[in-house]
Every structure is written in structure tokens, then in C-alpha cells.
Amino acid sequence: MRRDARTPLLSTLLILSTLLIFILDTFTPLDVAIAVLYVVVVLLSASVWQRRGVLWTCGACLVATALSYVVTHLDVFSVAAVGRMVVSMSAIGIATFLVLRGQEATNALLAREKALRRSQAFLAGSQRISKTGSFSIKTPGGDMFWSDEAARIFDYAPDITPTIDLILARTAPDDRVMVRAAFDRCTECLGSVDLRHRLVMADGSIKYVQVLAEPLFSRDGDCEYLGSITDVTAAVVSEQALHNSQVQLQHATRVTMLGELAASIAHEVNQPLAAISTNGEACLRWMNRPQPDLEEARYTVNAILEASARATGVIKRIRALARRSDPQHLGLDLNLLAEESVDLVRRELNNHRVALVLELEAGLPPVNGDRVQLQQVIINLLMNAIQAMHRCPSGQAVLTLRTERRADGTLWLGVTDTGPGIPPAEMPRLFEAFYSTKPDGMGMGLPICRSIIETHGGRIWAVEHASDTPAGATIVVSLPAMEAA
């Protein structure tokens, strides 16, 4: 029988009460069911002992009741005394049963309360670690409740009652209209909420928070929003740092690529410059005649302007590739991008004696993208194809640049060469960072191309040629058409 050490006085009182009831029942002439008082002992034992202790108490009371009957009626049998004993013992048994059921219910309630407290502690700890608070909004009044972590995110005391005015006081001025609209959406029960906005704290620091909320409906049709608010400042800062790193890496790769294209760039610039010089000399000759031929001079001046515009266009494209700037997505003509990219690698094609085949489908819809980044991808693919065919016999090096519109609304750009092809074992690693099939390659060209294309909502992959087709490699870029995007 396990006794509660915190209540020794009550335990002693129960023992003395049991002895007193036994003495009264045994040694007094009272002709009543004194043993029924043992029920009080059983009831009080529930607050002192656990299940086993109560059962021992019940047994002791039953034995005391029977022993008292034996002592007082050993010689004379009395039906009334037997009836009183049976009534007393039944009352003791029923009381014990009820006490044990009550103990079980109490213990279950205490266990649930303990589990609830443990869950609350775990939830508070998890919210603290994950920087995620919870809240609720009742409709239509807009009464709000939130967790301690939610209050901490807003830098308010945990016991403060949240209101939309307190939330707007911490919200960045540019985001307040958006936050207010989301709150009104909740009070009118108009569906889920998914919102990211900024907070301006008391010290002037900026926090980024992500708010998610879903409506819950009771059986009576009442609506209440339950949601979470997460401090995503660290993630946003990391995303910004990653974006800056990607921009810098892409810029460095473009500058490296421009260095490889220096001869082609010089050739592209020298051609219009040579045309300007030739037409300028011709214009002087037409003007220096005894009878100046103004029509011919006007024609040569127009030719000079055209060549100058062409040289200016080349310089602009080169400066755009060399400049480090954030992407600017606009509607672009994919065929025009392909032709401009080919112009920049024309010298490389001639030096490596590579025949170029352009299969550009007319009437393509525009793509939504950044001109510099997409040109970087196309030039990189063209240069890879040219370098892959450096050992091809004369007349067998053919580079095909193809564009087409697919039935699913995407635009495909494919670059095919007649080089040795890509070994099947290297296919899965082709777009891994720092992996290159070239002895002197850095292994960053194709991974950057993939990053750029995925940022534009597209895909890039290598096509494995069938065994019955000529050797070579094909890289395909898929981009969503602007109307589909």
C-alpha cells in the first residue's frame, strides 16, 4: 500500500477513524449499521493512497466489519445483524468501486493535462526554434489571439492583446495596404491567405515575415482563421546574397567568354570600320571631281551611316555582355537573339572552318527574358559546339542552330554539332558545377546556362543520339512563349 508522504496527518487520521468505527461497532450496544461509516474511510483514502492503497483500505474495512459481527454475535445468530453487515459491506464495496473509477478518471485527466502542458512546452520551443508563431482571427469582429512567439516576432509583450492597428504599426509603410487587405479578407472569410511582407522594428531594423492562414468552419457555420507567421529574414537575406553571387558569377563568365571571342569581336567591329573608311574615301572622290556627283556622295554617306550603326550595335551588345547588372525581363525575339549571337562568334566559325546552318522558324512569339543572359547561353552553346569539332576533317564540321515552336506553347532552341558526341556515362554529370569534358575547362559554363534557363522558367538538356545516327551532340533549350508565360 503506497502512502502519500505529503499527507501523514491524514493517513494517521484514517487509521484512527477505522479503529474508532471498529470499537463503536463492536463494543457499543447501538443497534444500527455503524459499519457503514467505513464508507467515509474509503472515500477519504482516495486522497491519500493510490489504487492499491484504496483496495487495501476496502479489504481492511470489510474484514473489520466481518470481525465485529463475529465478536458481537458469536453465540446468538441475528438476522437483523447479518442484514446490517451485508448492507455495510455492500456500501463499502460500492464506495470502493466508485472511488476507483473516480481515481481512474482523475488520473486520466491529470495525464491529459500533463500531456497538454508538455505539448504546449514543445510547441513553444518549436516555435522559438523555427521562429514561427501562431494566431487566430474570429469573424466577423476580427478579434485576434496569438502565441508568445508571434508577439515576439512583432516585438510586443506576450500578454498584449493583438489588434490590426498594432500589426500595421510594425508593418512597413509600403506594405500596409496589402496587409490591411489580407486582414479584411479574413474578417469576410474569403478564402486562404498567403502573404509575405516587411516589418519595421522599433530600432529601425527590417524583418521579413511569411503569413499563412486558412479558414475553419464550425458546425454552426461560424468562421475562424487559424494561421502561422514565420520570420523568414534569414532566408530572404540568404536569397539576396545568393542572387548577388549568381549575378557576379554570370558576369565573370561573360567577361571570360568575351576574352575568348576577342578575335571575333575585333572582326565584327573591323568590318563596318573598313566599310566606313572605304565609303569615306569614295565620298571624297565624288566630291573632289570638277563636277561633284552629289547623288553618289549621298549614297556613300548613307552607306557610312549604316556601317556606323552596325558598329555601334556590336559595341552596344559587347558592353551589355560586359556590364554587371540585374536581369531585366522583356519581350524578346528568339530568332533575333540567335542571329546576334551568331554574329559574335562568326570569326570563330571561320577560323575553325565550321559550316553554319540556320533553321529559324518564322513567326515565333516573343519570350519573356533578359537579353544579356539569354545571349550568354546561346553564345556558350555555340562556342562549346565549335570547340567540340576542332578535330573534324575539313568539310565535315557542321553546326546547326534551330528554333521551333512546340505544340505545348514552348519555344525550343537547339544547337547540334558533328563532333565526337557526349559519352553516355558523362550525360548525367554534364550540368554539374566544376565538371567539364574539356581538359582546360572550368566546368561552369553549362551549370550557369542551366541556372539562367531555369530562372526564365525553362529547361535545358542534352539529347542522346541514337546508335544509327552520326556522331555529334545536341543541346536543347526550352523556354515558355510570352503568351503562355
Automatic annotation (TrEMBL):
Domain PAC as annotated: residue spans: 193-244
Keyword Membrane belongs to the record: yes
Named from the GO MF annotations, one term is:
ATP binding
Kindly give the CDD domains that the UniProt entry links to this protein.
HisKA, PAS
Q: Which organism is it from?
A: Duganella zoogloeoides
Residues spanning the membrane: 7-24, 30-49, 54-71
Q: Give the record's keywords alphabetically.
A: ATP-binding, Kinase, Membrane, Nucleotide-binding, Phosphoprotein, Transferase, Transmembrane, Transmembrane helix, Two-component regulatory system
Coiled coil (UniProt feature): none
Q: Return the protein name.
A: histidine kinase
Q: Which InterPro entries does UniProt cross-reference here?
A: HATPase_C_sf, HATPase_dom, His_kinase_dom, HisK_dim/P_dom, HisK_dim/P_sf, PAS, PAS-assoc_C, PAS-like_dom_sf
In this chain the Histidine kinase domain maps to 264-483
E.C. number: 2.7.13.3
Tell me the Pfam families matching this sequence: HATPase_c, HisKA, PAS_3
- SMART domains cross-referenced by the UniProt entry: HATPase_c (SM00387), HisKA (SM00388)
